[in-house]
Amino acid sequence: MGGVTDASAAELLTGAVGDLVADLRRLRAPALADEPDAVHQLRTTVRRLRNLLAGYRRYLRRKPADDLRARLASYGALLGEGRDLEVRADDCRRVLAELDRGDLLDDLVAPLLAGHAAEHARLVAWNATDEAAALDAVLDSWAARLPLRRKRAARSARSAGRHVVRREAGRVLDRADAAGETSHDVRKAARRLRHVAEVAGDDRAAALGKEIQSCLGEHRDAVLLAGYLWSAGGPAVLVAHVEVLAGRALADLPDALRRLRALHEA
């Protein structure tokens, strides 16, 4: 695992969590101003922190870790409402350009942008609530001192990382076997694998997690766009085009899962 020294798991986690909390604070103002890609970056950082807490849960005290994960889940869901509409609007705009149907922008893209604006206003309002202040207080406490399980967290970061990455890779494969390769659970598991592997310094596992997540993410976005276009009365040719894109997004998925299985069994 390149990038991980002989530090302890406690030192690794303290540094990683501290960096992510700092990123959350840095990204808040741009996200509230709705600067380009800012909400996406903030949402991704929330997910990274949640996944780090989940992947390394055996090294953290359960109650405070579960509490922070729950708070981050609520925050991430709020960020996701507006971000998903923004992505759908961008995808819709791109598809309309591909098929030379700019005449449909007002009918199909404008409602998505209006929805995004409403969700962003909700995010700004939430930021002034007691719930937002409570999240800040919890993040401050974690940045100051992690609630570690001291004995377990004293083991080497390299050893802990190998164990965590192996478990998360197995989790991706188990979900692919149980729920099907294209399931939402596989995408979420692959994203967690990517995030913990990046912290652990396992570049191969991180790359495979990212590849699987990307395939399934592109597929999901296309499926949701097709559903939106159908419900909004878009032309059948437009819906069919997006459904083809959804199928293409999965072309490399079986091979990526095969390579992850080989890495996991090595």
TrEMBL record:
<protein>
    <submittedName>
        <fullName>CHAD domain containing protein</fullName>
    </submittedName>
</protein>
<dbReference type="Pfam" id="PF05235">
    <property type="entry name" value="CHAD"/>
</dbReference>
<dbReference type="InterPro" id="IPR007899">
    <property type="entry name" value="CHAD_dom"/>
</dbReference>
<dbReference type="InterPro" id="IPR038186">
    <property type="entry name" value="CHAD_dom_sf"/>
</dbReference>
